[in-house]
Amino acid sequence: MKQISLIAMFIFFGCSVSGQDDIAACVRNMVTKRDSLIKIGKDPFEAWTDCALNKKPPEFKLVTLNGDTIISKQTEGKIVVLNFWFIDCHPCITEIPGLNKLVAEYKSKNVEFLAITWEASKRIKEEFLVKYKLDFKIIPGAGKYISKANGSGYPTTYILDTKGIIREAWCGGRTDDKAGEEYYGKAKLVIDRLLKAQ
Length: 198
Hints:
alpha/beta
């Protein structure tokens, strides 16, 4: 059985519910109905995944660690992999080799890779990048966006199709040396399927 580590149920109850906040509403429902879901034999995280699928995440205007601005409308027409992470999240770190392998493989394809975190640029540069190489475009200081788009745990991944719709979503990850390969294999299947459908 694969080792799963769900880090810090990071719930934001202050989100308003609108068309753009459907995912935040899913998270709140998962939390408020957690016990009743478990009683009837349902996994709350599967319920969250089912709710997140086939929706658009909230629109964004985010600034990368390098100072480039990325707007969600500019990513339409591309497959987008959103990875929510933070520095002290062990499964976030162990899956990095898989993340980097995906970027290298799809470099010339129509795929955008974004690593979104609330961490400050300074900490990323001084504590993270001196130890690790992450080839995704790193988006620091994105706490407000995370409160609308994630909230389920870390790491969380959404893979969006060319219309910006979430076609795969998962949360948590391994903490051993197989984490990168597992992430790579899981994401590759979805990316390939979406590329083929273009």
